[in-house]
Write a structure and sequence with these properties.
36% of the residues lie in helices and 28% in strands. It is built from seven helices and ten strands. It comes from Sphingomonas lenta.
Length: 225
């Protein structure tokens, strides 16, 4: 079975003055279809750098990145945009919702960019938000939602275009422990129901243990746990 994500010898270094800092040192990682993988590591270990590489958000990387079997590491900016739009979903520590748009509109917008009709996009948004317990908050703006509710909207937005792979960077890191547990449970449930795969960066081993598999970044190298 072709992995949803496969990186081979993925490397990234930064130069500061006369010093070269190697953040990623030949990372080999494969994520199977439907698999949810936790990426463990303390702050500064390179988790976000790895997600930025896989998400085609930055250049300057060496090595291979394949999404559903297709090499994407050397694509130009326009081609990368298409891959992000059609195959990837993103959830960040901070929700980054559009403040002047309500919950439904925040989930509709990426679908319209994808080419979905407004009627279908609104139906999809309502379905995802209701599945996340926000059926009564569809027309509320971010400022009217709690932190946990805002992050649920961000999860719905990430899944709106039925991505092959969801990339989540500390998706509950800005929430209190109880709310983080609830949001993570809903995130995992919905990702599985949607049939997507996910790579979730976290420093929380307790939360990581709830996923299908755990890998750890240590000194720029990936360790299977």
């Amino acid at each position: 079975m072709t992995p949803v994500l496969q990186t081979t010898a993925l490397a990234r270094s930064f130069t500061q003055g006369d010093t070269t800092i190697e953040v990623l040192r030949g990372v080999d990682l494969a994520v199977a279809p439907g698999e949810i993988v936790a990426l463990l590591g303390p702050s500064g270990s390179g988790k976000s750098t790895l997600l930025q590489a896989v998400g085609l958000l930055e250049g300057g990387f060496q090595g291979s990145i394949r999404i559903a079997g297709d090499e994407v590491a050397k694509l130009d900016a326009a081609q990368r945009t298409v891959v992000r739009r059609d195959r990837l979903g993103f959830v960040y520590q901070f929700h980054h919702l559009l403040p002047d748009f309500n919950a439904t509109e925040n989930v509709v917008l990426p679908q319209l960019v994808h080419g979905t009709s407004r009627a279908d996009a609104e139906a999809r948004a309502a379905s995802l938000l209701t599945a996340l317990g926000l059926g009564h908050r569809l027309t509320h703006r971010p400022s009217q939602l709690s932190g946990g509710e805002q992050q649920r909207v961000a999860v719905a937005r990430a899944l709106a275009n039925r991505p092959t792979l969801v990339l989540a960077d500390e998706p509950t890191g800005n929430l209190d422990e109880h709310t983080a547990d609830v949001v993570l449970a809903e995130f995992l449930r919905l990702v599985r129901e949607e049939g997507s795969a996910a790579l979730v960066a976290t420093h929380n081993e307790r939360l990581a243990a709830r996923m299908d598999r755990v890998v750890r970044l240590h000194e720029g190298r990936l360790e299977q746990l």
